[in-house]
């Protein structure tokens, strides 16, 4: 197989894994919130596709990809069915879920940034849209669960920061060397996001809190 | 009157009733949350038009119908004015409100699904958009009231499920018999949604909860 | 300088001030909610640009201005950096912040209404879109902070009402005297919104609460 084809295939595979795992996280939160199967399906869909839908609305790419590509719509329904029966088991393998979630984070931010650049969006805004593709669904999930979004809280490991940095890699490479092999750049950026997120989980890295707020309780509301 | 014209007229009447009653439910929740008249108007508008606006943004049908059809924008303001003075009386006739709300649910899901199909959306996604037209406004209402959305919770009677099934009727009829009388199909599907929702309220039918979660308290947060 | 140019320049200056102060209010709420720097940046961006993004999505003006005009995207990041270090000082000058926030409210509602009219939206809907431009970002800020939106609550001074009235001034002037000097009208409408908001803060003016709810506690949930 040609390396580019391999990279594209891998990206697709990781993309599907990302959709699936994001959907699982939505369905599990729905179980935790005592929602029924409708709530599970809604949270699964919104977590997996919400960030991409918002990006596509901003870009004017309508209908959003999630509504034209059947697969990305059907996978969350499958994840809902699995979680319906296997939520105790899935809760027990949370650390494995986090690994796949990091893969989803990596692929979503790279894919979102590339799509924003392809639509002619400026560099800073493309980074924001790429990061939003990756973390937007999780924020909507938490809003629908009536939680403070995990990604915004000081007591959670780095999540948006790897996405922002990975998106920046894509943007910088696109600006400095537009002719460079895009699948290669995308793969390296995704690998970097994945590694940074895994390291943050392993070593408890967190984003800076406002100056002077360090001594306050992280759970204060 | 020709039957088609009658069906279309009836659909319009039920659509207006649906907008009105959805708006009442938003304004009443605002009263319950101690919001002022601005909060009442915002919740009334968002409950009545939010689902349709989201559908139209996804379809690329901008400006959304709620911003071009003056009536669907003005009715929620009328509902706000009525609720401002008559909220104690409206709270007392909740069961009558629920009947009209079921009519709104029925008409909104049928109308949303038909519009999605007319824009060339695939079958599964059209069902989702149709159901979202019907339940999306209520979810936004609850988010703006800082509640867990009622439609997602295990302790509420079937609401999204009738909408999904009614949307599926439209999609299946459209696929199997595209030439069939659309107003007739729409009326039958709406009647089915209405009857299913009323039966769910009457007999306390609820959507399945995650496997093994049956014994837990339905109000657990 | 020609008066029109002066008015346009002033509008731009106040617009930048509005973006900056709205962003500060988002970043300060993030500090209060114990969010990290990511949460601060997200709330700053959404407060400053959320209302305008929503308006542009409804109008079909994509990508929204916030994603093409670099300045309005970068200012909230600057506001985040300032708040990161100076949040204790900013909290101490809340009353000064409220003055600038009133200026932002005034400029945003005038600008939003004018843009809606330019896109051919009807009068009532243009008022709604203008007011939404001004208050939509603050509502999204509060939703992401898991609060009941301040602008909807009965225990907050007039905020949306000045925006609605200012938008109405623009719409009425546009309808009665389309040839009239638009920068002049815009300036007068903005001044009116600003004065009304400041008077509401000074004298504790509030929007009407539902009939008969006057005796209840304003903090009841």
Structure described in brief:
With 221 residues, chain A is an all-alpha fold. Chain A is built from 7 helices and no strands. Chains in contact: A-B, A-C, B-C.
Main beta sheet of chain A: none
Instruction: Please state the average pLDDT score of chain A.
Output: 91
Strand content of chain A: under 5%
Shape of chain A: globular
Secondary-structure element pattern of chain A, one letter each: HHHHHHH
Oligomeric state, counting identical vs distinct chains: homotrimer
Q: Which stretches of chain A are poorly predicted, pLDDT < 50 over at least 5 residues?
A: 215-221
**DSSP helical segment count of chain A:** 7
Strand elements of chain A, count:
0
Structural domain count of chain A: 1
Query: Largest interface by residue count?
Result: A-B, 33 and 40 residues
Taking all Cα atoms into account, the compactness measure Rg of chain A is 17 Å
> Helix amount of chain A, in percent?
over 70%
End-to-end distance of chain A, in Å?
53 Å
Structural class of chain A: mainly alpha
